[in-house]
Amino acid sequence: MRRVLAAFIGGGLFGAGLIISQMSNPAKVIGFLDLSGQWDPSLAFVMAGAVAVFALGYRFALRRSSPLFDKNFVMPEKVNVDKTLISGSLLFGLGWGLAGLCPGPAIVSSSFGDSRVWMFIVAMLAGMGLIRLIQHRNNG
User: Fold this and answer.
1) What Cα–Cα distance (Å) separates residue 96 from each residue in 27, 75, 86, 101?
2) Cβ neighbours of 23 (radius 10 Å)
């Protein structure tokens, strides 16, 4: 129960942060990404703040013998840069630049009732399903 409550509170804080910082506003994100037009640098401060909070939290967490609400830390096993990581990063950036949304802000924005956001979420889920199908066929 504590894990579920911690996840709920963390998700709520994350969503509130996305709304307050306007990361869930596609026009604001596209304005940030538009370096050759009317560039809006305000989201750079949001990202810098997020990276700083993460870095401090990560250092604090690794000093503990175990997480607060689990038995063990779950760390990424894969640490190398390969073509899958690069191509996934390129697709993520392309989608972010074209739509002004990425998965977290899209889920938060879906509560505002914009049909374009729902189309983005459907396309995102379809893309995730497609890549899993391709990976499954290549691995087996």
Assistant:
1) 11, 26, 15, 5
2) 23
Confidence check: pLDDT of 68 > 90: no
| pTM of model > 0.85 | no
Query: For residue 33, with 0-12 CB atoms within 10 Å meaning exposed, 13-18 middle and 19 or more buried, which class applies?
Result: middle
- How many separate helices (H) and strands (E) can be counted in the chain? 6, 0
Report which residue type is found at 123.
Answer: A
pLDDT (0 to 100) of residue 131? 87
pLDDT tens per residue, range 84-101: 889 889 988 888 888 888
* Interatomic CA distance for residues 22 and 41, integer angstroms: 12
**What does the H/E/C string look like for 61-122?**
HHCCCCCCCCCCCCCCCCCCCCHHHHHHHHHHHHHHHHHCCCHHHHHHHHHHCCHHHHHHHH
